[in-house]
Automatic annotation (TrEMBL):
Swiss-Prot/TrEMBL cofactor(s): Fe(2+)
Domain TauD/TfdA-like: 16-281
GO MF, one annotated term: dioxygenase activity
Protein name, UniProt field: TauD/TfdA family dioxygenase
Highest taxon in the source lineage: Bacteria
Organism of this sequence: Mesorhizobium captivum
Length: 309
């Protein structure tokens, strides 16, 4: 269903409200669930490819089970590799601001420390603060397209090492003791190291996008210090406001993003107000570079169990 007019017949254009010209659209008039027609699911998939992130308000009828049954229509579900799913679910990740790991306030693409990282994330607002707690997404295809030709050429030929074991204290100096403990004992209970091309060719659209985010450790063949400078340069094209969209959550909202063509950032500006969002995650495939090479996971090591003090 690549023809937009076919999508129009299933989801009328008047029910698709772009939030910016480059990224994000709200879709109205759909009650998400397992029982949607194949044509509606295909249309949602198509709108995701176009807008990169789509939003549905008023999906308060969803519980974890129905949330997953809907997500399952978009592909196979996959639990987080180290954090595991909420009990009784296949993939639901609970992000609770009052617990370690609940504040995703770094620009990232989900789970890029493994090779076949997720293709879609389906996030549901459960408890939303009265003020703050928005999420921002960037279109990483638009970011690639906005690079000058010389930087595109450089990016096309560059590879990066992604790992879940990064310098947490350097990245999040104000983290609580509980957050640090979660990072050390849960998030990095198995350490992954994966080499990805910096430019990924999208398997469905053929579009090129920048594949970066906070799991990047360094670029292949460059020192950490050169890598950090170059990372900031490329990443500035991802985070430039023109390539982003910001969503003001209400409980019952659902956001779905194409994790192959976006990064996102959960704004940590709500202090000690409570915030809970829950994510169902759809499995992806191994990225391919502009010259047809695939990403590879080099290392996967289980950490020795922490010794009792
Ligand atoms: O808390 C949010 O808004 C986003 C959390 C996140 O990074 C995710 O669900 O992948
Ligand atoms: Fe995320």
């Amino acid at each position: 269903m690549n023809n937009p007019s076919v999508v129009d017949q299933i989801i009328p254009a008047t029910d698709v409200l772009p939030l910016t010209a480059r990224v994000g659209a709200e879709i109205r008039g759909i009650r998400l669930g397992a029982n949607l027609s194949d044509a509606t699911i295909a249309s949602i998939n198509q709108l995701l490819l176009k807008h990169k992130v789509v939003f549905f308000r008023g999906q308060d009828h969803l519980d974890d089970s129905e949330h997953e049954l809907f997500a399952r229509r978009l592909g196979d579900l996959v639990p987080h590799p180290t954090q595991g799913p909420v009990a009784g679910t296949a993939s639901i990740l609970n992000l609770d601001s009052s617990r370690g790991g609940g504040r995703a306030d770094q620009w990232h693409t989900d789970v890029t420390f493994v090779d076949a990282y997720p293709k879609f994330s389906v996030l549901r607002g459960v408890v939303i603060p009265a003020a703050g707690g928005d999420t921002i997404w960037s279109n990483t295809h638009a970011a690639y397209e906005s690079l000058p030709a010389a930087l595109k050429l450089l990016a096309d030929n560059l590879w990066a090492i992604h790992s879940n074991a990064y310098d947490y204290a350097a990245v999040r100096p104000r983290a609580s003791a509980e957050e640090r403990k979660h990072f050390e004992e849960v998030f990095t209970s198995t350490v992954y190291e994966t080499e990805h091309p910096v430019v990924r060719v999208h398997p469905e659209t053929g579009e090129r996008s920048l594949l970066l985010g906070n799991f990047v450790q360094r670029f292949v063949g460059l020192s950490r210090s050169d890598s950090a400078k170059l990372y900031e340069l490329f990443q500035s094209y991802v985070t430039t406001p023109e390539n982003t969209v910001r969503w003001r959550w209400q409980a019952g909202d659902v956001a779905i993003w194409d994790n192959r063509a976006t990064q996102h950032y959960a704004v940590n500006d709500y202090g000690d107000q409570h915030r809970i969002v829950r994510r169902a995650t759809v499995d992806g495939d191994v990225p391919v570079s502009v010259d047809g090479r695939h990403s590879v996971t080099h290392a996967k090591t289980a950490k020795p169990a922490a010794k009792a003090a």
